[in-house]
Amino acid sequence: MARLWTLCFALVIFVAPSLCAQSGATFYVSTSGSDSNNGSYTSPWLTIQHAANTVTAGATVYVEAGTYNESVNFPNSGTPSEPITFENYPGQTPTVDGTGVKCCTSNPPSSGNETQGLITIVNGSYITVSGFEIRNFTTSSAAPTPAGVWITGSGTGVQVLNNLVHNITTTSEKNGNAFGIAVYGTSSTPISNLTISGNQVYELKTGESESVNVDGNVTYFTISNNIVHDNDNIGIDAIGFEGVGPSGSDQARYGEISGNTVYNISAIHNAGEGDEYDADGLYCDGCEYVIFERNTVYKCDLNMEAASEHSGHDSSYVTIRNNVFYDANTVGISIGGYSNAVGGSDHVVIVNNALYNNNTKNQGAEFQIQYHSGSSSGNIFENNIVYAGKQNVWIYSYVKPTSSYPAPPATLNWNLYYSTAGYVQSTSIDWAGKYNYKTYADYQSGSGEDANSPNADPLFDDLTSTPPDLDIASNSPAVNAGSTNLTCSQGYCGCGSSIYGSVDYAGNPRVNGSGQINIGAYEQ
């Protein structure tokens, strides 16, 4: 290692200093350094921005503990074999702090809007940012938008890993915006092969925007194993049709949102959302070919929603499987648009989820079906456990049939329904605006749905623990009672070899050796 730095020192004497940032080299940043140094371990740089300006493909930059009050733009890209990596020095946590950094006065080229990140990547590829605390970036004005991490334009192979992102805020929430981690694909060339994993994103005030999002022309992305909590708008969102990307490519698509834990997401004190319980934990707002699986979502306004806020457009070919959703303020899972003037859902398949005690504010249901989500559009609800709490609303499908919206609003079967109060007419199931099913059996025969769906106690392992254990006992009526009839060949593409997934919520094989499958999120 000493020989490497000796060689670099010799090169500085004879050629431009930037040539020290050669492929495969390792550099260091420290709050005790200087940007006139050579970036070695014994002579580190002072600012992350200087390192970003200097290094080229193949370089690794270790940033030591300390507070760095700067907004960092990454002008250089790596390659598939030689990425650029910025990460914490082992065992230490460097902090990029926006205190004193004025938001959005020096936007990077081609950003196309008034958004600025403490970490900003514009048209960058093969860049990894890992192990930072990113915090305290705020605005009191509606026009600028602060972000913890801001990725935009085009590019491939960017990774945002294992960071703490918090206290990114706008105090002008009625008309303002802020982001924790935001990705906007604005070019005809997509942002692709993106990974956002292992981050914790919390204590945000985002106004009309999201905690973590991918929007516009973003393809083949993975958002996994993040913890997103205690924010006042949407937790994780895959978005389309907002005019972010070019026409025909303005959708986040071919992605996986998996293994995340999302909780305490509510807009009840957010003027940008009308101070209502309308913030999703997980949201597909016009996304396409996206899988949501093995996520844990609780105490959000709506724990999961697949819809579209734009008329004439749908969320399409979305798979929601092997998740646990509980204690939502209003809704466990919702599909379809919130009004007839917006879009809806098509080919949304909801399989093998556990829903428990959602609708705690008595404003929704365990499973909600809204506008523009008819069964002719291929929406399916299958193999799910629905255990309603004291509000006792199992299914709320309030939109009455019309010539342009034929009933039934979705296809339901092989589910298990239960509540301690039992089935109650006019409360438990509102099917296509009808309240006339006196019993659960009347609902089955009258609607033609859920023919193979028992009304029985699923025998969850422990509802008194925190969190509740929604695995099932070996003698549960959900054991081996599910269906495996759906296949990708039926048009539900983008789901892998099986629409049910290869593993259950806990990571065990999804289908047992005899080809049977449980109802709910767990196998035995």
Structure description:
This protein is mostly beta strands and 524 residues long. It folds into two domains: 32-274; 277-457. 5% of the residues lie in helices and 37% in strands. The protein contains three helices and 40 strands. The strands form four sheets. Strands 1, 2, 5, 8, 11, 12, 15, 18, 21, 24, 27, 30, 33 and 36 form a 14-stranded parallel sheet that branches. Strands 3-6-9-13-16-19-22-25-28-31-34-37 form a twelve-stranded parallel sheet, with no helix packed on it. Strands 4-7-10-14-17-20-23-26-29-32-35-38 form a twelve-stranded parallel sheet. The chain starts with a helix and ends in a 52-residue tail after the last strand.
Count of helices?
Answer: 3
What form results from the Cα inertia axes? elongated
What proportion strand? 35-45%
Mean pLDDT: 90
Helix content: under 10%
- Alpha-beta content class: mainly beta
Write the layout of secondary structure elements.
Blueprint: H1 2-14, E1 26-29, H2 48-54, E2 60-63, E3 66-68, E4 72-73, E5 84-88, E6 94-97, E7 115-122, E8 127-130, E9 133-139, E10 145-153, E11 155-156, E12 159-161, E13 164-170, E14 179-185, E15 191-197, E16 200-202, E17 212-216, E18 218-224, E19 227-231, E20 236-239, E21 252-258, E22 261-265, E23 280-285, E24 288-293, E25 296-300, E26 302-307, E27 314-321, E28 324-326, E29 331-335, E30 344-351, E31 354-356, E32 365-369, E33 380-382, E34 385-388, E35 395-397, E36 411-413, E37 416-419, E38 429-431, H3 440-447, E39 460-462, E40 469-472
Parallel strand pairs: 1-2, 2-5, 3-6, 4-7, 5-8, 6-9, 7-10, 8-12, 9-13, 10-14, 11-15, 12-15, 13-16, 14-17, 15-18, 16-19, 17-20, 18-21, 19-22, 20-23, 21-24, 22-25, 23-26, 24-27, 25-28, 26-29, 27-30, 28-31, 29-32, 30-33, 31-34, 32-35, 33-36, 34-37, 35-38
Antiparallel strand pairs: 39-40
